[in-house]
Amino acid sequence: MRRPYLIAGNWKMNQGPAQTEAFFGAFSAPSHPEVEALLCVPFVSLQQALAKAGACRIGAQNLHFEENGAYTGEISASMLQEMGVTHVIVGHSERRQYFGETDAIVLRKVKKALEHGLTPILCVGEVLAERKAGAQERVVGAQVDAVFGALSAAERMATVIAYEPVWAIGTGETATPEQAQAMHAFIRSRVPAEVRILYGGSMNAANAEALLSQPDVDGGLIGGASLKPDTFRSIVDTAIRLR
Ligand code: PEP
What we know:
The protein is α/β, with parallel strands linked by helices. It has helices at 17-26, 46-52, 77-83, 93-98, 103-115, 128-132, 136-148, 153-157, 177-188, 208-212, 229-241, and strands spanning 5-10, 35-40, 57-60, 87-90, 119-124, 160-163, 197-200, 219-222.
């Protein structure tokens, strides 16, 4: 089955409104039927990104699981929907590690995003000690099942998964294409064939081709290498070349 590639950038807490304008002054996403480009930018940069995005989709990096109310500092799914955001990252390892997000919270956020027509990008991945202990399938399987086990068939199909080995995020250490493929195939066995599974963890212009060539790697979730227009574009172009 040919799933369209999704090349997604995660800017994390980088690039405010002025830098976002400058980025989109130098970046344009090609229109391609089988390659989608997406940038998940900070909340305060959404307006600038949406105004200049062209063919690039714009996403957020987090949302709250309640509809609205007394949750100081939080952003709701309906606010993102109103702005024109199409995707939202949920359960990134940094949110799990620094903000105490559990599988139960992640599930509520995924559900809330789906209720509002936003595509959740559900992040899963093992930490280094778990990989060293050979526990990656147990850990990642549990993270996937905790969410997918509670979704309807339609909700599953509308969700994207990002496999991000935590030991490879922002470290310059990348999973080998074989390691990535093995985990993606494992995740694939638990979800519908149409669900896209992105790889994340130090993907860059140099290693994108080897990773994206793997049969179960349907795109990338890219942190550091998405901050520069030319490097991000070069990963998008690699995906286009592979199609
Ligand atoms: C990420 O932020 O999800 C990520 C994979 O970061 P990096 O590409 O910098 O490792």
